[in-house]
Amino acid sequence: MNKLIFQIGVLGFCVATVIFGGSGGSVMEIVSRSFIVFVGIVLAATAIVLVGGMMIQRNIVDSQPSEKESTTQVPNNTTT
Questions:
Q1: What is the DSSP letter of 74?
Q2: How far apart are CA 55 and CA 57, in angstroms?
Q3: Domain ranges of the chain
């Protein structure tokens, strides 16, 4: 997953370099802006993956019956 997030960030860096390069400016300005875009994309993608993983984990835990519920069930033994 780390490689995928990094590659998406590098793709964003390259696209930002082309976009900022077309608008003019010094090389240092273009690279620094593109690096800021790279860091932003990597942080956002990491946050999305972490939040998604936490939501999935919470759904799995909520769907499993807890031990208290399974041991406190009283069997229905009504015989006549």
A1: P
A2: 5
A3: 2-55
Cα–Cα nearest to 1, from 40, 73, 59, 53: 53
Sole residue written with tokens 């015989």: 79
The answer to whether 17 and 31 have CB atoms below 8 angstroms apart is yes
At residue 2's C-alpha, the angle toward residues 8 and 11, to 5°, is: 15
State phi, psi for 73 to the nearest 5 degrees: -75, 130
Reported as a single tens digit per residue, the pLDDT across 38-57 is 999 999 999 999 999 999 88
pTM of the full predicted structure? 0.71
HSE of 77, CA atoms in CB hemisphere, 13 A: 3
